Amino acid sequence: MLYIHQFPDWTRFRFDSPKVLQALGQTRLEEGKLIGIMQICGLKDIEAKLLAEDIVANYAIDGYTLDPTNTLAEVELKSKGSQNYIKNYLGAIQNASQPLTEERLFNWHSAMGQNKVLKFREVPSDVQTTIDEKQLHFVGPNPERLQSEMENFLSWFESANIDGVIKAAIAHFWFITIRPFADANGRLARAITAMQLARTENTTHCQYALNKQINIHKSDYFKILARTQAASGDLTEWILWFLQMMRDAIKDSEELFAPEISRIQFRSAHANDTFSVREQQLIDEIMAGRLAQPFTAKEAAALFNASHDTALREIQSLMDKGILETNKKGGRSMRYRLVNS
Fold first, then answer.
1. Is the domain of 204 the same as that of 305?
2. How far is CA 300 from CA 176, 263, 286, 320, 329, in A?
3. Domain containing 323: what range?
4. pTM for the whole thing?
5. Burial call 163-189: b when 16+ CB within 10 Å, e when fewer
6. 76-129, pLDDT tens digit by residue?
7. 265 part of a folded domain
8. Spatial separation of the C-alpha atoms in residues 263 and 266, rounded to whole Å
9. What's the pLDDT tens digit per position in 289-316?
């Protein structure tokens, strides 16, 4: 069997343009909606959560377990953190506009991989992975080809004039097919992907956790890569799958912002209303999801650390203002929820 890199001019990748452009349009639309949401809401502490999830998943795809709590703490420390593999991943996004060079890749690999020698692998790359009880086998280019292959890749990465999202998908596949290092090639490919997506979105922030989605669908990830690496240069299946993972990741991010969007819409709709301290506290707790809907007066009383009658008065006041409505009748077991919630 011939692998893709064994064909002449193997990097002249092709794909089904109508299919890919249709999927790209859907992805760009979702991406634009998310960017708009983030401009309204701000990133706040959500970016750190997304970055930590992305980094943990990046390692999980390759079978390594990172502690989510420790990873989040390191992400929040940013450049003051102690783990270079996290700082480098952050740098790939925050300094995405800086060129991707051999030196930069060597530094990333030194932090992510086991071999601390700053050079490409000098041994063959023979990879076997068992997915769903099926053996996937891939052999990368011979070591003597790596220097020229990487020069070609890095030149293309910095100069190719194609859609940035498609470029991210191709870069991911191209790098992981060259496999220039003895280990950590997948983690590095996904860092390069994050860098390219930050470039195309013209941001220095993480807006969605793509690696989390790849990890959820890890079996498909490896199988599609294997099929594409065993073909002659048609990347259609890979690119379409990549775009779907992007849309899934964007949807996840939108759900994180949903409570904040609800609060903004509520404040806009009730800009002229005034609320007591307890009324505002009740509204805030409901919208933050800390007081599940529908709720009882007893649950509201526990929130206020007040009597049942006091909670009922606050609830009735909010009902009079059109903020709350009853979920069902039943005396003291009556339940309440936000109007139109």
1. no
2. 54, 19, 10, 17, 17
3. 277-338
4. 0.84
5. ebbbbbbbbbbbbbbbbbbbbbbbbbb
6. 998 888 999 999 999 999 999 999 999 999 999 999 987 677 889 999 998 888
7. no
8. 5
9. 788 889 999 999 998 888 989 999 999 9
